[in-house]
Fold this sequence. Notes:
Layout: E1 2-7, H1 14-23, E2 28-32, H2 43-56, E3 59-63, E4 70-72, H3 76-94, E5 101-104, E6 106-107, H4 117-139, E7 143-146, H5 157-161, E8 166-170, H6 171-176, H7 180-191, E9 195-200, E10 202-204, E11 211-214, H8 223-230, E12 237-240, H9 247-263
Parallel strand pairs: 1-2, 1-12, 2-3, 3-5, 4-6, 5-7, 7-8, 8-9, 9-12
Antiparallel strand pairs: 10-11
Helix pairs in contact: 1-2, 3-4, 7-8
Amino acid sequence: MKFGYVFWHEDGELLSILKQAKKWRLDFAEICLDYPWPDTFSEDEILAAKKMLADMRMDVAFHGPLGGILLFHPRKEMVDAAIKIHKKCLRFAASLNPLYYNFHIKTHPLELRIKGNKNTALQNCLDGLDEIIELARELDVRLLVENSTSTGYLVPFEELLSRKIDFNLDVGHWFAGKRGYERLEKLVGLLEDRIALLHLHDCKFQDAPIKDHLPLGQGDINFSRVFKTLKKGGIQMMALEMESKESRLLKHNLSMARDFVNQHALFGS
């Protein structure tokens, strides 16, 4: 089991993020490529990152951009723009030999209220996904699709499972979306060993307002029950994703995550 953390643009420059991840004794850093990344990375910075990763014997992974990147949309122009941005990010990611490239399939609900738009949006999304999958194959980058709070994985599983793509299960998003423990058991049974990554954070969902990305133990999730379920999922990697960057909290949460893994024999095959 590899342990990592999700870093954002506000957390510092690329090299400082890698140094911080090493200081925290992480196996990898998952870095979100929201604008202006990766556009502003220089060749020198990329070369320096390669050398640092090799010297530190640490891995890197990437989260696709979030803002306005709509892969599920009835206007093909919108999906084409999202595909273009993902391809740029994938090419950059490939230069650092990442563990994976993780992304959301996002939509805009107002566009889907008109009859017929959802079917058009789905077809546009599937065509776009096939382009991304083909490029990832050429670049030898592993693709993971992450569930969103309001829409889950969005695309029907029969369409995703037939494609060369694996899954990131974001536990906080799952419970923030009011999906519950029984549906989680069904999901793990459906996806079997295709859940490669777990985004780990707590969530307060029993009372309004829902609050996500909390340190473990500060929300309502029963992690003992969750990890018993996930034991069947073949998970290979885990990344903490918390709003707090306090070193003490991160150390405590990593320790808790490792304890859950050991208690429930949770590791990838």
